[in-house]
Amino acid sequence: MTTSSVKELLNSDKFLQEVCVKGWVRTFRSNRFIALNDGSTIKNIQCVVDFENTDEALLKRITTGAAVAIKGTLVESQGKGQSVEIQTTNLEILGDSNPDEYPIQPRKHGFEFLRRNAHLRVRTNTFSAVMRVRSALSFAVHQYFQQNGFYYVNTPIITGSDAEGAGEMFKVTNFETNKAPLNEKGEIDYSQDFFGKQTNLTVSGQLEAETYAMGLGKVYTFGPTFRAENSNTTRHLAEFWMIEPEVAFNDLDANMDLSEDFIKGVLQYVLDNCKDDLEFLENRLLQEEKTKPQAERSEMSLIEKLKFVVDNNFKRVSYTEAIDILRNCKPNKKKKFQYLINEWGADLQSEHERYLVEKHFKCPVILFDYPAKIKAFYMRLNEDGKTVRAMDVLFPGIGEMVGGSQREERLDVLKEKMAALDIHEDELWWYLDTRKFGTAVHSGFGLGFERLVLFTTGMSNIRDVIPFPRTPQNAEF
Ligand code: 4AD
Ligand code: MG
After folding, report:
1. Average per-residue pLDDT in the chain?
2. Is the CB of 398 under 6 A from ligand 1?
3. What's the 301 CA to ligand 2 centre distance in angstroms?
4. What CA–CA distance (Å, rounded) separates 189 from 118?
């Protein structure tokens, strides 16, 4: 007999058929009712055991967490809360789970406890829902780009370049600690290292993606990205997944259009395809918010929030306008911000981004034309000589979801900017080549995938939307 998934059986109306299902026991009630889950859906299927005719030793082994195979008859359910159930005719324990030791009990666990049990937490409703939504979002990302003429490129994970110039890279070396050979100057001689040069884990695939956009036209990357910044926040990971589209001939306006359309497209996909999980997550969030003071509660439910983003235009605001708003806003005047905004040129902190999005505009905001001084070298300089064609997409509850720009396509300007920042031309000779041979206007952006999952699921800590988070002092599993 073929094994059916719980999802298939719950959607079936072929009653009285003989079925087989395999999964893990969530609860076993009154020596009679097993709530079985196999991960295919947030819902459990109820399997009714004929306890009078079942060996007592076997009944004892039906414990929370045990893996079981159940054969039986699919019938319309008598009980409340489910449409079908299985009248069990044969039950086999595939793997026992000692109830005294199994950490995931059928009650509420704190997220911190579950992070310490990240290998088992996917067996809870919340984490299985989050991970199914994450999977659907991944699919939607590929579908969106593939349907819109983009090619998927895989940029290197080990690189010799520092794309963001922020110096937050994990070093990759084959030298043994304290045994690295030195050159005449007493510095580590990387020419003897595995790659013959200093290398690191990538902080962004952008520079390589740009070279591919200049041949394939429209490309995107979707891969692991690493940052060695020591940020212990609810929005930073040391290892995260970034999506980076790059498009030849797109200017900044087209880039903003793409980011908005892309985010709306993938959210719509999840709204259409993850109804059960979203409803569960919406409820979870509602319960969580009840524990917060009224003022901190969200005005919209999770699904309302997602629909709101899909249905409304993002507000586009220049950095200069944003600074005016922030300089004159209440929290700035009353010195409530940790970092006060006094003058044009200030870098925006997440408290400012969130003020703009959550209090002032109350919708996603695209900020553009930032001061050149606070942005990366590759962004296109505006005619004013002091701002660049940068854009950040800011989201409620998240802050920065996307960072992108129109790229500096003029060789002479790019070289000047690199020189000013002491970036050596011989390190990026291949990048400069794209400006020498058939250079063209082009733009792209990077979207932090976990921040998107965070927003979509209504979770509040980025560590809870990736299976095994990597953060400072934490690389268990
Ligand atoms: O703004 P960032 O640093 O931009 C770039 O890396 C560009 N090269 C992208 C491009 O234009 N192709 O990073 C892009 C996004 C951020 O907006 C944020 O969503 C996410 O990546 N991000 C992180 N997500 C989780 N943990 C971190 N430590 C992150 N750092 C950036
Ligand atoms: Mg950024």
Report:
1. 95
2. no
3. 28
4. 40
Instruction: Among the bound ligands, name the one nearest to the CA of residue 163.
Output: 1
- Is the Cβ–Cβ distance between 10 and 41 less than 8 Å? yes
Q: How many C-beta neighbours within 10 Å does residue 256 have?
A: 22
Which residue among 451, 465, 474 is best mutated to probe the pocket of ligand 1, counting the most ligand atoms within 8 A of its Cβ?
451
Helices 429-436, 206-216: axis angle to 10 degrees equals 30
Residue nearest to atom 20 of ligand 1 (CA): 448
Dump pLDDT digits (tens) for 2-54.
Answer: 999 999 999 998 888 999 999 999 999 999 999 999 999 999 999 999 988 89
Q: What is the DSSP letter of 182?
A: B
CA of residue 249 to ligand 2 center, whole Å: 22
Paired tokens of 455: 């927003």
Closest-lying ligand to the alpha carbon of 219?
1
Instruction: Please give the average per-residue pLDDT across 433-440, as a whole number.
Output: 98
Residue 325 has pLDDT above 90, yes or no: yes
Q: Please report the pLDDT score of residue 336 as a whole number.
A: 94
CB of 193 shorter than 6 A to ligand 1: no
What residue's CA is closest to ligand 1, atom 28? 236
Sheet with strand 315-318: strands edge to edge: 151-152, 218-226, 239-248, 442-448, 399-406, 387-395, 365-371, 315-318
Indicate the pLDDT class of residue 83, thresholds 50, 70 and 90: confident
Distance CA 98, CA 89 (A): 24
Q: Please, which residues have CB within 8 angstroms of residue 352's CB and are 6 or more apart in sequence?
A: 322, 326, 337, 339, 341
Cβ of residue 240 lying under 6 Å from some atom of ligand 1: yes
Q: What is the mean pLDDT of residues 63-79?
A: 94
> Is residue 252 classed as helix, strand or coil in its secondary structure?
helix
79 — pLDDT class (breaks 50, 70, 90): confident
d(CA 458, CA 331): 26
Atom of ligand 1 nearest to the CA of 245: 12
Q: What is the 403 CA–ligand 2 centroid distance (Å)?
A: 4
pLDDT by residue (tens digit) across 133-149?
999 999 999 999 999 99
For 379, the 3-state DSSP assignment is strand
Rounded to the nearest angstrom, the distance between the alpha carbon of 401 and the centre of ligand 2 is 8
CA-to-CA separations, 247 to 117, 244, 369, 384, in angstroms, rounded: 42, 10, 19, 25
Task: Report how far ligand 2's centroid is from the alpha carbon of 402 (Å).
Answer: 7
To test the ligand 1 pocket, which listed residue (201, 204, 247, 255) has its Cβ within 8 A of the most ligand atoms?
A: 204
- The predicted model gives 112-128 an average pLDDT of 97
Q: How far is CA 235 from CA 239, 427, 448, in A?
A: 12, 31, 10
